[in-house]
Amino acid sequence: MAHMGERRALGRSRSAAAFTQMAAGQKVGGQCGDYIQRALSNPTQPWSPELPGYIAPLPSEWTQRKRKRQSLEGQDPSTSCERLAKCSHEDAYIKGPMLGQGGFGSVFAGTRSSDGLPVAIKYVTKDEEHEDMEVEGQGLLPLEVALMTRVNSAPACPNVLKLLEWFEHPGRYVMILERPDPCQDLHRFCEENGCLDESQAKKVLVQLINALKHCESCGVFHRDVKPQNLLICTDTNEIKLLDFGCGHLLKDSEYKEFAGTLSYAPPEWFRSHSYRAGPATVWSLGVTLYNLLCGSLPFRSTLRIAVS
């Protein structure tokens, strides 16, 4: 089961890499924003290949959610009808070439038939770890969809990628996402153009902090901040945070399961298998900043992270 979780998180993280091939609530916890404002660490250890991410499975929680979903569907048949109606509008988009594929499913370039708007079409396969979350007025939504619905609610943040709409099928759901043109993810951008200088890095960091503070205000914890999950619009240098597939609701208490990329995980995860949203977010910001400035990751292994 742990291996299954690892494959799933790897697939999720690859969804960000798919964007490199594009044309180039309620507020909870109040401390995350404060943590983000603090000085970031600047590690100096040598780099080695990135460690894979994973999600520790929670079958008992999934079982409870499944029972709740079945119960709610039995009480309100209109919910199922509304979801089936969503499927009939999927032909409003023309699917183009595949941009990426992973354990999560596939991402394709696409266009909206009505006006030619560039979009990304993300197909996500449901599995036994699939989670739903109830959203007021919309019933139970896949967790990733629900989190993006929250962060896209007014007032929207220009530094968070937009979910335009979504469709549901028995074994998968489909997300229609904003696709800026031209753009690249920051990892690929730095590979092709060299590391960012301090002025560029500062502009990126300000926008990323703005995105994360917005997520906090919406009660959302992204959990997988890294250059691959940041798009840069190459004509405007605007930054957009993407891929909420590893995200969860923000809470004050500790998280006992990890989702994301291990090389960006905080030391406390390796010491006690627990972490809090604020410090973990700041740690991933520090690793991201180091990567953008130096072109490498700061730690050779998880042991080095744990003893830092």
From TrEMBL:
What catalytic reaction does the record list?
Answer: L-seryl-[protein] + ATP = O-phospho-L-seryl-[protein] + ADP + H(+); L-threonyl-[protein] + ATP = O-phospho-L-threonyl-[protein] + ADP + H(+)
Q: Superkingdom of the source?
A: Eukaryota
Domain Protein kinase: where?
93-308
Gene Ontology CC: one annotated term: cytoplasm
Q: Which organism is it from?
A: Cirrhinus molitorella (mud carp)
Q: Which UniProt keywords apply?
A: ATP-binding, Kinase, Nucleotide-binding, Serine/threonine-protein kinase, Transferase
According to the UniProt entry, what is the EC number of this protein?
A: 2.7.11.1
Task: State the protein's name.
Answer: non-specific serine/threonine protein kinase
Gene3D superfamilies from the entry?
Answer: Phosphorylase Kinase, domain 1, Transferase(Phosphotransferase) domain 1
EC class (word): transferase
Keyword Repeat listed? The answer is no
> For this protein, what is any one GO molecular function term?
ATP binding
Family per UniProt?
Belongs to the protein kinase superfamily. CAMK Ser/Thr protein kinase family. PIM subfamily.
InterPro entries listed in its UniProt record: Kinase-like_dom_sf, PIM_Ser/Thr_kinase, Prot_kinase_dom, Protein_kinase_ATP_BS, Ser/Thr_kinase_AS
